[in-house]
Amino acid sequence: MIRKTSPFIFGILLCLFSANAQHHLLYESFSLGGNDTSKTEVIQCGQQIKIQSADKPALSPIPGTAKHYTYVDYGCDSVISQLFYSDAEQYYCSRKLESREYKEEGNETVQGYKCKKYSIILFSNKIELWFTDDLPFQASASTGFASLPGVMVKYCRNGNAITQLASVKKD
Asked: CB pairs under 8 A, 24+ apart, for 132-140?
């Protein structure tokens, strides 16, 4: 369901969320052999996370292009997506957190974290995921895999497209 909401409500949500953030995670995404990297920031606060692009905005964005924020509430098993337009119009939609059946493939150390490795086939793509319990919260750079326990350290699609945890900062 898509709803239009007042800028005031989400403004308060953003201020409260940012002011109380506990951890800032930075993920980098790239393809092997490519030279283009994108960045995603995940801000963790209690049982919620906020996912947003950490790339520098375009100098001349296309008129009418929205900023996109995604919130995951682990306490309610829900995902809220927010679109924020430059004319202060905001829209959001909510859905349940996706739960999938993953194959657990053992334990590996990735970037210094003890991780559980999971795999799944989605739309003919082999997805490999590494999640750690070394950090005291739950977070993922993608809502599609946010139901797995722990913090996503690495994502690999078809052995080529990679998203990996670049840094964790505690407030």
From this structure: 135/23, 135/168, 137/22, 137/23, 137/44, 138/47, 138/49, 138/74, 139/23, 139/25, 139/42, 139/44, 139/49, 140/42, 140/49, 140/72
Within 13 Å of residue 5, how many CA atoms lie on the same side as its CB?
A: 20
Say how far apart CA 61 and CA 50 lie, in whole Å.
Answer: 23
| pLDDT tens sequence across 137-154 | 999 999 999 999 999 999
Confidence category of residue 33, pLDDT binned at 50, 70, 90: confident
Contact 129, 154 (CB under 8 A): yes
Three-state secondary structure call for residue 38: strand
Question: Sorting pLDDT into bands at 50, 70 and 90, what band is 66?
Answer: confident
Question: What 3-state DSSP class applies to 71?
Answer: strand
* Contact criterion met (CB below 8 Å) for 148 and 141: no
